[in-house]
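[agent] plan:
  1. take the single chain provided in the ticket
  2. run structure prediction with default settings
  3. attach structure tokens to the ticket
  4. add a short note for the reviewer (M.T.)
[agent] executing step 1
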Amino acid sequence: VDKEKESEDAVEEKEIADAIDSVQAKIPESLAIERSAIEKLVRWYCREAGVRNLNKHIEKISRKLALQVVAEEEGAELTDDSKRKSDTWVISEKNLEDYVGKPIFTSDRLYDKDPLPCGIVMGLAWTSMGGSALYIETQAIRRGVDSEGKKKGGGMLKVTGQLGSVMEESTQIAYTVSRTQLADIDSSSSYFDDNDVHMHVPEGATPKDGPSAGVTMTTAMLSLALNKPIRNDLAMTGEISLTGKVLPVGGIKEKVMAARRAGIKCIVLPDQNKRDYDEMPEYLKDGLEVHFAVDYSTVYDVAFGEVN
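[agent] step 2 finished; step 3 output follows
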């Protein structure tokens, strides 16, 4: 009985081996996923920590390739969505979208102009997907006058971009600090009295919250009021107090990674986050110009060209 079972097992193993060889023989020798495709997956599809989502995308590519190989071997007709759209079996960054669809994330840079338009600054935020480069935009609306020639309203701040309650509080603090800083820089300026300010954080469909954009908001409003643009390779993060102190924030490593991904060369961080930065791997810090701010005066000097 044992010999008969061993014989049956041997036959089964041979059948399985033959089946595997048969399948492998059908696989095109050129079939491969290039490194450029993996890098594109990581950057534009799978930014979260871990590799689970990356593995899901690679499995999706593999299933579609397997379907195409079998269909072409057997002469089966596939739908437009499933059929091979190129002459190659190599998955590269050029044909990756044919297998996984359009990128989930778009460009890290909304503005390529250097310097940026006045009133716009890049901040660094932490999201569920890790670090993210986030622009703060400000625009002035000159106050109108009534029939008697008196100005209507009075120096108001409007905020949009689906901000959470914590971030909305930050906008009010940043607005007060901006007015205070402007009075110290130019006591004759009545910019915030003559104009309402509209502040917007793009990508309105994405909820945003957390105390880490105070210095960015303050810098954006001062850039607008002083008519001084900010260099486009500068990004910053940090909360600000009413007296201008720069407060520590979380997610420094993720934010620095986001800055590097966006091509940023100069970063302003809270001084109390220096230890977090020092503990980061050297390859993340390589080539970066980093300034640590105790109060807003350092941020101002870096942003408006007082520091090289």
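[agent] step 4 note for reviewer: The chain has a mean pLDDT of 85.
[agent] ticket updated
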